[in-house]
Design goal:
Blueprint (H helix, E strand, L loop, with lengths): L1 H36 L12 E4 L6 E4 L6 E6 L2 E11 L1 E2 L5 E2 L11 E12 L2 E12 L8 E6 L12 E4 L6 E3 L5 E6 L6 E4 L3
Antiparallel strand pairs: 1-2, 3-4, 4-7, 5-6, 7-8, 9-12, 10-11, 10-13
Length: 198
């Protein structure tokens, strides 16, 4: 009975410690997200030198330049690691977000912040992830759409033609094998220009 009681006590103690660690990690993540949200949109730097942390699953990218990893953040007698990743995202035609926008692309008016907090629990790495979407205050919602078809003089569809809005070069689409293209824009009247790869 005594052994059973001790085992139960150890299990409860581990559960309490695990819950405490997760709470502290969440607080650390929230604290960093709030500090990054207080930076103006234009001063919130997008990650250009990412590295991969593969100690947890799934692996994640983090910034090694503008927001260097914090490797020893003490809280409640536990050492945590805190890592940040900021990247551009764009609206897709279906209203979802495209999170594969390269950092070199023109500004989309949307940036996503990822804050990862990691710690070791009985030899195993654990993490809490917090995300926040930042919007350019001057951003115009892309609630309109430009679509069409591009053909040559013989009415053959043209593939891989770039159709770009002259007034805003970050609004563009690329034709498919049928010559069709579609992309989101703010409502209005625009001039479009087509070009083909050199």
């Amino acid at each position: 009975a005594l052994i059973s009681l001790m085992t139960t006590f150890q299990h409860i103690s581990r559960s309490v410690q695990s819950s405490k660690s997760k709470t502290l990690a969440t607080n650390l993540a929230q604290e960093r997200v709030e500090s990054l949200k207080n930076i103006s949109y234009y001063r919130l730097m997008v990650t250009t030198s990412p590295a991969t942390d593969s100690r947890v699953s799934p692996n994640f990218l983090y910034d090694t330049g503008f927001y260097a990893p914090e490797t020893e953040v003490p809280a409640g007698g536990i050492l945590f690691e805190r890592k940040i990743y900021v990247h551009k995202v764009a609206e897709k035609l279906d209203g979802d977000l495209d999170d594969t926008v390269p950092w070199q692309n023109p500004d989309t008016g949307l940036k996503e912040i990822h804050v990862h907090v990691l710690w070791k629990d009985r030899g195993e790495w654990k993490q809490v992830v917090m995300r926040n979407l930042r919007e350019n205050p001057d951003r115009i919602p892309e609630n309109g759409k430009i679509e069409g078809n591009v053909q040559d003089a013989a009415t053959n569809p043209l593939n891989k033609v770039v159709v770009r809005v002259v007034e805003n070069s970050s609004w563009y689409g690329i034709t498919d094998i049928n010559g069709d293209y579609s992309f989101r824009v703010a409502k209005g009247s625009y001039t479009v220009r087509t070009s083909t790869p050199a």
